[in-house]
Amino acid sequence: MSHPFSEAANLFQFPPSKSPHLMNPLVLAYIGDAVYEVYIRQYVISGTNHRPNHLHKAATTFVSAKAQSKLLESLMPMLTEEEVDIVKRGRNAKSGTTAKNAEVLEYRHSTAFECLIGYLYYKQSFERLKEILDFALATKLQSTQ
């Protein structure tokens, strides 16, 4: 019997209408936010405390603009030139909105992080995406110990 997650690729069958290189960085950030959120939610649910309030609080320590901004700072030395270019595009994109609980620079760096995640996702660089997501998780867990 096949594992139910082996069919997950079929669930996400709608490719973007453009190459990731040509996409608006805010569109990449939009999907990157969702990809990162699902990754973090799966991690939080892998724990034993499944009370909804606990799950939400635990997840928000990872997905806040402040946390993502700090994470991007740690991530920068390991990024390729291409990835740094995508981060810069995401950071410089004018969104017209601001975060409720973050400084402007934190919000822009958070958007840059999400842009990178979205870019790797749509580029189907899943091995590299997993490497960065795993690094993000490990970095955050180390900072809370």
From TrEMBL:
Its cofactor is Mg(2+). The active site is at 33. It comes from the Bacteria. Residues 27-124 form the RNase III domain. Pfam families: Ribonuclease_3. It is an enzyme of class 3 (hydrolase). Keywords: Cytoplasm, Endonuclease, Hydrolase, Magnesium, Nuclease, Ribosome biogenesis, RNA-binding, rRNA processing, rRNA-binding. GO terms for molecular function: ribonuclease III activity; rRNA binding. One of its GO terms (cellular component) is cytoplasm. It is found in: Cytoplasm. Involved in correct processing of both the 5' and 3' ends of 23S rRNA precursor. Processes 30S rRNA precursor transcript even in absence of ribonuclease 3 (Rnc); Rnc processes 30S rRNA into smaller rRNA precursors. Homodimer. This is Mini-ribonuclease 3. The lineage of its organism: Bacteria, Bacillati, Bacillota, Bacilli, Bacillales.
